[in-house]
Amino acid sequence: MREFTFSQRAYENLILCRSLRCLYVVDSHRERLVHRLQRAPDSVFTETLTNFTGAGFTPDDRLVVASRHTHLFVWNTSSGQPVRVLQAALSPLVKLFVSATNKAVTLLQDNTLQVGFGITRDGG
Known about the structure:
By secondary structure, the protein is mostly beta strands. The protein has strands at 3-6, 14-18, 23-27, 32-37, 52-57, 63-68, 71-76, 82-87, 93-98, 103-108, 113-118. A hairpin with a 7-residue loop joins strand 1 and strand 2 (14-18).
């Protein structure tokens, strides 16, 4: 495991565990795996041996957002289904931050920042 992130709302009792190529959503109260998030939708091409470089919950815990190579992936926390895939950059993503307004800020390998990716379809 590379990183653990707790859900924003304490009563959700969720932990997001990031390994190199897979994300795990775990219910800490029931001590069970809720979802294993790994694959991109079939229509999205990602480099084969790339790793997740960041992952987190949105402030309301409804979505999981993760960066992998040059993409941002968004999954529904309760269903585990992909919601959105964004081509974030041409340079690989190194770090991911999700703001309180559901915007993503990414640090790229070439040391540039990208600010303001709307995570949900309505941009919020």
